[in-house]
Design a protein that fits this description.
The complex is a heterodimer of chains A (about 280) and B (about 300). By secondary structure, chain A is mostly helical. Chain A has one domain (about 20-275). Chain A is about 75% helix and about 0% strand. In chain A, helix 1 (about 20-35) packs across helix 6 (about 120-140) and helix 2 (about 35-65) runs antiparallel to helix 4. Chain B has 2 domains: about 5-215, Rossmann fold; about 225-285, Alpha-Beta Plaits (2-Layer Sandwich), CATH 3.30.70. In chain B, strand 4 and strand 5 (about 65) form a beta hairpin. Chain B is elongated. Classes of the chains: A mainly alpha (about 280), B alpha/beta (about 300). The interface of A and B includes residues 10, 24, 25 and 110 of A.
Chain lengths: ~280, ~300
């Protein structure tokens, strides 16, 4: 009988692919945000108020808005709910402002980028953290509203489901815009308060002056400067509501263009950041 | 080869942080030393793909640094500066970094516990990093670099900011890692005794260029053909007297360095006596890394780089 000595060899640990690495960042980021009181407040209160107010419109519009036809055009009304604007901005400011800025402040960016991921992976993961949270305000309440209306028998299901589909489309546009703007502003500074202020400035700093100036000098084209007015124009176009001050097609191009530009600028900024960090 | 570079250059504005660096670094424990601004950290960042070279090429374990991801899969990097996420726990951060490196959830958690045990972070691993001492943070930084079991470790000033006890502990850990079969380490430090204690091979950088490289023991003992002489009195005058007697002598930071030949010892005593100096020590020159470093840097400066 022969005795062989045990042989020890190093066990190579197989590494999973990049999509798993990105998902790891996303899940960790979502877990982190869902434990922050400010984010919980924005999600809870934002979703509740926008959903309740949207359903309120549906229930009471026939009484409050005499003559309003109960067809697809009716669903423009919940989309124009300014609570959506406020809470989407708040969500982007609370969650989005710190997504990159915090990593710059703590210099954890070096840790991320020294791992086998690219800057694009990192940004994709950060966008995937922010996107669903913004969508909880920009899409979820609007998508719930026609379903409630259908369940209450106020609208035919064909109209209600059509409205759900349109809400998903315009909600994705709004979500993409605010996610990209928030990440861009967050990548510009290591102080998330500055980024948060920037997000509010982009929303209200453009919307309120544009509205005032457009009516003062009777120049509605100025409303294209406002992302909210652009969103409303897109919603009008989607639900077939006529008579708006600006056209939906240029508004859509502007909003998507700004989204793409902000995303590219964030990527370029991240490529430049590698030089100065540390 | 662990690292190979050819004409590697990185320019920031008018500063050439790494300047036309061509080197071949063998596998093992490598010390990367140089004065502040020598380009050590920039070179490490180039190897990691964190910065893109202005010119030239490089590879780590045969993988082109331009590819980035395959290189970083094989590297565990411990940055010099604070980089930990303060609101995470030690175990949370290390397992998170393992997952971002590509380990599955269970393996990541298991290995995070293993490496934290190895570096000596015990129950503190469940506390938030914001509450950690500097030494504890350094250990967590080391743990996150090790967690995905890379083939190459890059440690950038790992003992910076540590008290003597923390430094000793860290050096013990680094020595253990360096002696592990199949592990390679690039240790960048300006604390030369640390490098001397751990590394087998050293690369000396200055002004972004390599001014010396090789097996450490050979570099330090490469001057056995020279004597080191310590005198009480005017070193320069003794050196001058020796040169007048056709003895090759120069004044170093730690004494006179004299070329060995038959009868040179008597010439030393004669020269010292002639200028009223006293020979206190004479022996074969064995330099410390610090002496080697100062000498090569000085030679580089004299050469007008």
């Amino acid at each position: 009988m022969s005795i062989s000595l045990p042989r020890f060899t190093r066990r190579e640990t197989p590494l999973l692919g990049r999509s798993h690495r990105v998902r790891a960042i996303v899940f960790a980021g979502l877990r982190r945000e869902l434990r922050r009181p400010a984010a919980i407040f924005a999600i809870g209160v934002g979703t509740l108020i926008t959903t309740v107010s949207s359903i309120f419109f549906v229930l009471f519009a026939p009484f409050l808005l005499q003559g309003q036809p109960l067809d697809l055009t009716f669903f423009y009304l919940p989309a124009s709910n300014t609570a959506i604007l406020f809470f989407v901005t708040l969500m982007a400011a609370i969650v989005g402002s710190g997504l990159v800025a915090d990593d710059l402040r703590t210099m954890a960016l070096t840790l991320y980028l020294s791992r086998p991921i690219t800057q694009a992976d990192y940004l994709t993961a950060k966008a995937a953290i922010l996107g669903p949270l913004v969508a909880m305000i920009a899409i979820l309440p609007l998508a719930i509203t026609p379903i409630v209306a259908g369940l209450l028998g106020l609208f035919a299901w064909t109209i209600a489901l059509h409205a759900v589909g349109l809400y998903l489309v315009i909600g994705v546009v709004l979500t993409a815009f605010y996610s990209s703007i928030a990440l861009f502003l967050s990548s510009l500074t290591s102080r998330k308060a500055y980024a948060a202020a920037g997000i509010f400035a982009v929303t209200f700093g453009l919307t309120i002056p544009a509205q005032l100036l457009a009516s003062a000098i009777n120049q509605p084209a100025l409303l294209y400067l406002s992302p909210w007015e652009d969103f409303l124009a897109i919603a009008r176009g989607a639900f077939g509501v006529g008579g708006g001050p600006i056209d939906w097609a240029p508004a859509l191009i502007i909003l998507l263009g700004e989204t793409v530009f902000a995303s590219l600028a964030t990527y370029v900024r991240m490529r430049a950041l590698e030089v100065i960090t540390g | 080869m662990l690292v190979e570079t050819r004409g590697l250059t990185k320019v920031f504005g008018e500063i050439r942080a790494v300047d036309d660096l061509s080197t071949a670094i063998p596998e093992g424990a490598i010390g990367l030393v140089g004065p502040n601004g020598a380009g050590k950290t920039t070179l490490l960042r180039l190897l990691l793909g964190l910065v893109q070279p202005t010119a030239g090429t490089g590879s780590v374990l045969g993988h082109d640094i331009a590819d980035g991801i395959p290189v970083r899969e094989r590297i565990g990097y411990m940055p010099e500066h604070d980089c930990l996420i303060p609101e995470m726990t030690g175990i949370g951060l290390v397992s998170y970094m393992a997952r971002v490196s590509g380990l599955d959830r269970n393996t990541a958690m298991s290995r995070a516990h293993d490496v934290l045990q190895f570096v000596g972070v015990e129950e503190e691993r469940y506390r938030k990093i914001a509450e950690y001492s500097t030494g504890m943070k350094q250990k967590v930084k080391l743990a996150q670099a090790m967690v995905h079991d890379p083939a190459v470790y890059i440690f950038d000033e790992p003992t910076t900011g540590l008290d003597p006890r923390g430094r000793t502990e860290m050096l013990r850990l680094l020595t253990t890692i360096a002696s592990t079969l199949g592990r390679n380490m690039i240790l960048s430090s300006h604390l030369l005794p640390d490098v001397e204690a751990i590394c087998k091979h050293v690369v000396i950088l200055d002004g972004g260029r390599q001014i010396a490289a090789g097996d450490l023991s050979r570099l330090l003992a490469g001057a056995r053909d020279r004597l080191r002489v310590d005198v009480r009195g005017d070193r320069d005058r003794v050196a001058q007297a020796l040169r007048e007697a056709n003895v090759e002598a120069d004044v170093g930071p730690t004494g006179l360095r004299i070329a060995r030949r038959a009868g040179v010892e008597a010439e030393v005593f004669r020269a010292a006596r002639s200028v009223g100096a006293e020979v206190r020590y004479m022996g074969v020159e064995i330099r410390s890394l610090e002496e080697l470093f100062l000498e090569t840097v000085r030679q580089g400066e004299a050469g007008g780089r």
